[in-house]
Amino acid sequence: MRQNMSRGNAVATQRLIDAGAVIFGKTNVPLLLADWQSFNEIYGTTNNPWDLTKTPGGSSGGSSAALAAGLTALELGSDIGASIRNPAHYCGVMGHKPTWASCRRGARP
Hints:
Layout: H1 11-18, E1 39-40, E2 44-45, H2 61-68, H3 85-91, H4 100-106
Antiparallel strand pairs: 1-2
Helix pairs in contact: 2-3
C-alpha cells in the first residue's frame, strides 16, 4: 500500500543513523524483492540511468540506479542471490557482499 509507513527503522538503518548518517529517502524494489528488474504496481518501473530502455536489475535496482545517477553516495541492502551485485553491475557501480564470517565478526551483541 502506498500509505504504508514503517513504525521503526531496520537495525542496519538505525546503526547508520546512530553513526551520524542522514537518511533522506527510499528506493524502488520489485514486489517481494523477487525479480530481476525493479517494477512494482505501487511505484512503477525503475530504469537504468545509463539507458532508459534497460533495467537496473533487482532487487536492489532502485538503489543501484540512484547511486549511478548521483542521487546518493551510498546505498544499503542485503544480498543472497546477487541482489546487490547484479544491479550494481548493470548500472556500472560497485556492489559488495561481505562474507558471512566478516559480518559475524563485526556484529554487535
